[in-house]
Amino acid sequence: MKITALTPYIADCFRTNWVFLKVETSDGIYGWGEASLEYREHTVAEAIREIGRTVIGKRASDIDAIWHDVNREVYYRGGPVYMSALGALEMALWDIKGKQFGVPVCELLGGRVRDRIQCYANAWFSGAREPEEFATKAKDALEAGYKGLKWDPFGSAYLELTPQEFAKAEACVAAVAEVVAGRAELLIEGHGRFNVPAAIRAGDMVAAYNVGWFEEPIPPGNVDALANVRRKTKAPIAAGERLYSRWDYLPFFTAQCADFAQPDVIHVGGMAELRRIADLAEAHFIPCCPHNPCGPVANAATLQVAASSHNIPRLETMATDVPWRAEVAQEATTYIDGCLTIPESPGLGVDIDVEALAKYPFLPHELRHYKGTLTDIRPENADYIFKQ
């Protein structure tokens, strides 16, 4: 069974654009991958087409050999663009192999260690600006069954944190903490926005509310600086979404800079690499909690890896999404008691409707993280994707 075509598809999803990859074979079996790379969607789609020169005509079942060939042939390897393109290809090849043998991909990765995984919610806060608005949204998330809530309360702050910004952030955290009151875990996102002293102050503030972690408190690129924050703040530190392979994770673990590792199945180059990083983290007794804010194919791929790893205790889930997600994607997972079930259908457990995708063509979107508009993550008619 030979690879005959790699076709990327780009579709608007309000805050950014999804990038899906369909890989076709000579036997008629196809697989889906995802290469969503926020705000650089056409760049990663072109990288997929270039990778096609290396892989068209190769046996679809030779996943590891193809991965290493592509990684070698890029030469200037690594980084978000090519690793995301490679990640989409690798996911699609696992999807094909699972369909070929009639089993979920987790069965090919060593079998299941769980049938469902605890999830925490992202995007539950859509549109909130003030503390009372965050509190109202938190009530809705609890009613939807989520037992973990993650959000960034820091508005437009970047590097420094003014007294006014500090007070506003603390008021937002306090409002949500009062609503949650032990019913769900609080997880605070930093989006890499602070310098070291501001990160330490912010970390100590959120630690007073017994948060599960403080995520990406400083910009990526200096694990020693992150280790300094970890040593000096009272909050557990989570990081790693902007690392792109097991080789990037080696100095991360050596520096002892985080309490939780957060590789992204897209950006580290796919499912096997995510599993390798989870295993490396396990050797350091650090939980692996994958970054998972993208689309339905990445979510399905991450679920399959989580099903086969003892060291993935919880999973990020986009609680709300655009109304057309259900139109373009058929997802074989269900939401039960704050958990997503592991699909039992062959392959990844997701399929994409190409005709539906065409209704939502690419729209350019800009980074909102440091402009005070971060919570404008969903349209007004967005709803919870998975409900109990």
What would a concise description of this structure say?
38% of the residues lie in helices and 18% in strands. It is α/β, with parallel strands linked by helices.
Tell me the layout of helices and strands.
Layout: E1 3-12, E2 17-25, E3 30-34, H1 41-55, H2 63-74, H3 80-101, H4 105-108, E4 116-122, H5 131-143, E5 148-151, H6 163-180, E6 185-189, H7 196-207, E7 213-215, H8 223-232, E8 237-239, H9 246-254, E9 260-261, H10 271-283, H11 296-307, E10 314-318, E11 320-321, H12 325-328, E12 329-331, E13 335-336, E14 339-341, E15 350-352, H13 354-357, E16 383-384
Parallel strand pairs: 4-10, 5-6, 6-7, 7-8, 8-9
Antiparallel strand pairs: 1-2, 2-3, 4-14, 11-16, 12-15, 13-14
Helix pairs in contact: 1-3, 2-3, 5-6, 7-8, 9-10, 10-11
Rg (CA only): 20 Å
Low-pLDDT regions: none
User: How many domains comprise the coordinates?
Assistant: 2
User: How confident is the prediction overall: mean pLDDT?
Assistant: 97
Q: Which architecture of the largest domain per CATH?
A: Alpha-Beta Barrel
Instruction: List the quaternary state of the chains.
Output: single chain
Element-by-element helix/strand order: EEEHHHHEHEHEHEHEHEHHEEHEEEEHE
Strand order in the largest sheet: 5-6-7-8-9
Q: Can you tell me the overall shape?
A: globular
CATH class of the largest domain: Alpha Beta
- The end-to-end distance, rounded to whole angstroms, is 40 Å
Strands, count: 16
Proportion of beta-strand residues: 15-25%
Largest sheet: 5 strands, parallel
CATH fold naming of the largest domain: TIM Barrel
Number of helices: 13
Q: CATH homologous superfamily of the largest domain - what is it?
A: Enolase-like C-terminal domain
Helix percentage: 25-40%
Secondary-structure class:
alpha/beta
